[in-house]
Amino acid sequence: QLQLVESGGGLVQPGGSLRLSCAASGFTLDYYAIGWFRQAPGKEREGVSCISSSGASTKYADSVKGRFTISRDNAKNTVYLQMNSLKPEDTALYYCAAESFLSGCRDMRAMAFGSWGQGTQVTVSS
Question: Does 90 score more than 90 pLDDT?
Answer without folding.
Answer: yes
